[in-house]
Amino acid sequence: MTDIATLGEFGLIRRLTEKLPTVNASTIVGVGDDAAVLAYGDKRTLVTSDMLLEGIHFDLVYTPLRHLGYKAAVVNFSDIYAMNGTPRQLLVNIGVGRRFSVEHLDEIYDGLRLACERYGVDLVGGDTSSSLTGLTLSLTCIGEADANDVVRRNGAQETDLICVSGDLGAAYMGLQLLEREKAVFANTEQNEMAAQPDFSGREYLLERFLKPEARRDVVAQLRTADIRPTSMIDVSDGLSSELLHLCTQSGVGCRIYEERLPIDYLTALTAEEFNMNLSTCALNGGEDYELLFTVPLTAHEKISQLEGIKEIGYITKASLGCALIGRGDAEEIPLRAQGWVHLENQD
Amino acid sequence: MTDIATLGEFGLIRRLTEKLPTVNASTIVGVGDDAAVLAYGDKRTLVTSDMLLEGIHFDLVYTPLRHLGYKAAVVNFSDIYAMNGTPRQLLVNIGVGRRFSVEHLDEIYDGLRLACERYGVDLVGGDTSSSLTGLTLSLTCIGEADANDVVRRNGAQETDLICVSGDLGAAYMGLQLLEREKAVFANTEQNEMAAQPDFSGREYLLERFLKPEARRDVVAQLRTADIRPTSMIDVSDGLSSELLHLCTQSGVGCRIYEERLPIDYLTALTAEEFNMNLSTCALNGGEDYELLFTVPLTAHEKISQLEGIKEIGYITKASLGCALIGRGDAEEIPLRAQGWVHLENQD
Predict the structure, then answer these.
(1) Of A7, A91, B84, B113, which is least packed with CB atoms within 10 Å of its CB?
(2) What's B246-312 look like in SS3?
(3) What is the pTM of this model?
(4) Does residue B70 contact residue A164 with C-beta atoms inside 8 Å?
(5) Which residue does chain A place closest to B41, by CA atoms?
(6) Which pLDDT tens digit goes with each residue over B120-179?
(7) Is A102 within 8 Å of B130 when comparing Cβ atoms?
(8) Shortest CA gap A69–chain B (Å)
């Protein structure tokens, strides 16, 4: 018997999906991108699905149910935006144990509804069932795009510029803050509990983790500027991991500059406080839901005029591999996939 | 706080989904049918999603993983057929605990692949994640149909005939057999374990429960005979429950005849052995995945020529309610929804 952790997330997915031929003319892209691409009519239909399990993907000690519902929806929308599409419909399956009441489910749905409202998505179905254990959410989002607009992971070309929206590592630092407070809380006697945890000034980090947004605005910005990315992916597992996906699927290599990684001041401050390497946080933190994409070198001028988008490096030929160039061009550090830390850390 | 069980499955779903407006032109039907109906291009896109949780929907003591994968796929296909559509794509999310190995996942995928192959469906995506507890499967199926072909739950008209395919209650009796053997097994000392449980002659019942098929053939039969059902649903929760869905959503009542319920000889034999009321098994057993549908009275002649389809009653005006007419026209028994026994029985 093979322990699942030995294969890692991506090894496992490869193994499970390698024998999957497609037979329907309407199936354009199957397994292996942010979303499947289907052809129903002139437009492309995009479909993505995600599962969130209590104790693995979220900890109810510090995750308000409303935020959980909101985030579960948004991370699925993010996958559709990462294909350069527009999310349209959402299906939600929920498994709940006995310790959950109807009001708990209402809260989750409040969050789901809010997200749907903000992003113009229709909640069209799903399944609610009891569970013997914790809370399980499994969502499917359907979106659309013109056939020529769909951006996949496999289109990056040598000399393309690598761009990323927003900033990285903040969600991860938000998680660290929450975990620290949880530990403090667990070690505090009932009668000495002074006050609520003090996160003041760090709300940005918490929000990045608990209530992220999908970068619909970035997709719109690019469209307005008439820039069509050659490849795109959303940053859910961490920059390194996503960049390796783009490069592997495009058959190319890359160089990114450590000094160009977009990092918020609060992220830097908190990483220092936790004695963590800041670049590692930005490279492997995950859950930022920013968009990572490549554009032709000729788009440099246009990109540099867009706010909140940073060029962090360039695509090379595959033989050069994927590496981070340290500050001051000091050294090249090979990029490593992190992904699915859940499985490896679990005991 | 409200205990979820007090609302029941359908009450809960109503509560959670009552505030769900739709904003996209492509959303034709949202929550409340076997599948959502979307308009991408000329055809209709159908989407359905289902979640299966260990200990609630399946018991791994007697469920081979290959069968589990097969069944999980087929029950989703069944929802698409119940809309008079054709399933085309499948997305699969799996949560697995540490006691599962890669080989276990391979077995589940073997079953999924076999079902996809048989039904001509493409497995196009999904998510595999670790779980702190049992096994969780959440599947989404996408299908298509011509706009005029989509059959919903809300089209039944007064005087329509009520038809059902195949036979009912067999899956439920299969489950009883498996549960009995499990109990025997649990009470047997290691050293007196004589042999494998003896199911010989009852394989049909086990297969109905462990490896059901979706009634693609019935949908094809009806199309060939040029019969378009006025309403249709698949029998997953039990005949009573499904019939009440059709009637409620169509705003009608119904009468069905106890003596016309289609029941296999083995189901009858086993129900007697278990001292269970046979009609109750057929009405509330569930998991048969047969198709329940209504047709205009004028289709009677055509229907009677089709094999494996039985007329079991007729649609009335709403004020007459929904009832079963006992053998020999003896009495009228109001139909009751069973549905989601999982939640109510759970402790």
Answers:
(1) A7
(2) HHHHHCEEEEEEHHHCCCCHHHHHHHHHCCCCHHHHHHHCCCCCCEEEEECHHHHHHHHCCCCEEEE
(3) 0.88
(4) no
(5) A41
(6) 988 888 777 878 778 999 999 998 888 889 899 999 999 999 999 999 999 999 999 999
(7) no
(8) 13
